[in-house]
């Protein structure tokens, strides 16, 4: 009975667009959904550093090297905000990281695809960050306060990243024949995985109904995906490149672009761990964490000694 | 002062910061804890920024449409003048911290000298860079203390790292011909560098460093490197060289 009153009060707040804050009562499922989603988002930022980090050492100019470093560093910063937001729900960062390493927690499947050429740095910025922004702009209005506020900061940087990515491709698209081919190849490889980033079709998405009611999510997977296709189908013409979809065309009646079938078999395979780089990505994160253990222990031991000294003084 | 000495010295400054930046950049995404991943990447960004300033100046001195990228991407192992210390592999976190400490403390001395030197462009770059270098010194000193006075394991790992890298510090203070031409006082720098390090090591419960008792490697400043530089450059330069004449 009492829970019912709490729950009514909670839903009232959501309906009136009042943010839920860490100390507020919330249904256990709301807490769990937010922990799952925010930590997954944090893990995606951290694992997402790896495919781009690949190219820091090989960036083709000093300016590009500096921009790429700054971008990957931004992602680490996003990871930090998001871990901090998730921690307000009662799970420690260490626990979240353990969950990532044990496979209990997921990260965005897109980062299980390889970065094979320099053009991939452009395609990731333009398509992957572009797709992420669709979702993230929506999340600036999500009902959980700390998450919404983290997203406001993140969105500003992400839209900058998207422009940078587009600019990398723009330079390639005006370059030599080899550069143009490199550009088109990267678009071909990243287009479909980018569309998969919005998740399963609405008819098959298990977590969606409650998330909509609680305003954790405000637009469905398919709505966001369509919005993305409409945007990119326009922008690709500025590059003089094409999207690898023969069914892509403007539908006057719908006021949207129609597009072809996503390979959902591939999507589920990658989710299950069978993508091109799932094993490498997780192994790299575990290695960094395991090899960093003695460093973290040293820092903790030193801090304790300093505290002791201060006490004694 | 000849123009070619100034070019060589500027390239030495540029190559050293770029090569160390390239090494530190390998940590990005692989650091021991997220906050430090961000910190080492910050330092990397500073180093790459310094390298760009030095390369741009060298390119201007050389003339003939020379560019920063021409100098960074189209010179070979034997033409790179960076200190050997900068190219040593990352190893574990202790090795990276030791390398950064030796180098940042050295940069602090060197840039202070350039600040009062006769070349106004180098003085301006040094002034801007010193702000960054002071932070790098503080950051790496804090880590020397944490590792030195942390756990037994961290203490031992740091001792190993210092032993490993010490033989690569000597050449920083042996003037190459271009430094002699420019009247860089390497001997004076070595004294203040040593004093600062001794203080830090004492605080970190480490034995004092010694400049006299160990053999020192040389050659970096005149283009004779360790084996690892060739691999570093091959990786760094391959895109530029695979597609000559392209914009990126």
What do these coordinates show?
The complex is a heterodimer of chains A (313) and B (248). Chain A is mainly α and 313 residues long. In chain A, 69% of the residues lie in helices and 2% in strands. Chain A is globular, with a radius of gyration of 21 Å. Chain B has 248 residues and is mainly alpha-helical. The longest helix of chain B has 29 residues, at 34-62. The N and C termini of chain B lie far apart (36 Å).
Set down the secondary structure blueprint.
The complex is a heterodimer of chains A (313) and B (248).
Chain A: H1 2-15, H2 28-47, H3 49-53, H4 62-87, H5 93-102, H6 119-139, H7 145-173, H8 177-196, H9 208-213, H10 221-239, E1 249-251, E2 256-258, H11 264-274, H12 278-291, H13 293-312
Antiparallel strand pairs in A: 1-2
Helix pairs in contact in A: 2-4, 4-7, 6-7, 6-8, 6-10
Chain B: H1 3-25, H2 34-62, H3 68-73, H4 84-87, H5 93-115, H6 120-148, H7 152-165, H8 177-181, H9 186-203, H10 228-242
Helix pairs in contact in B: 1-2, 2-6, 5-6, 5-7, 5-9, 6-7
Number of helices of chain B: 10
* Largest sheet: spatial strand order of chain A: 1-2
> What would you call the quaternary organization?
heterodimer
Helical/strand content category of chain A: mainly alpha
Shape of chain A: globular
Question: Which range does the strand content of chain A fall in?
Answer: under 5%
The tally of strands of chain B reads: 0
Let me know the average pLDDT of chain A. 95
Please identify the structural class of chain B as seen in this structure.
mainly alpha
Strand count, sense and closure of the main sheet of chain B? none
Distance between the termini of chain B: 36 Å
Q: Can you count the beta strands of chain A?
A: 2
Low-confidence stretches of chain B: none
Helix and strand succession of chain B? HHHHHHHHHH
Q: Helical residue percent of chain A?
A: 55-70%
What letter string, H or E per element, gives the SSE order of chain A?
Answer: HHHHHHHHHHEEHHH
Shape of chain B: globular
Indicate the percent of residues in helices of chain B: 55-70%
Name the CATH superfamily classification of chain B.
Ferritin, core subunit, four-helix bundle
What summary fits the major beta sheet of chain A?
2 strands, antiparallel
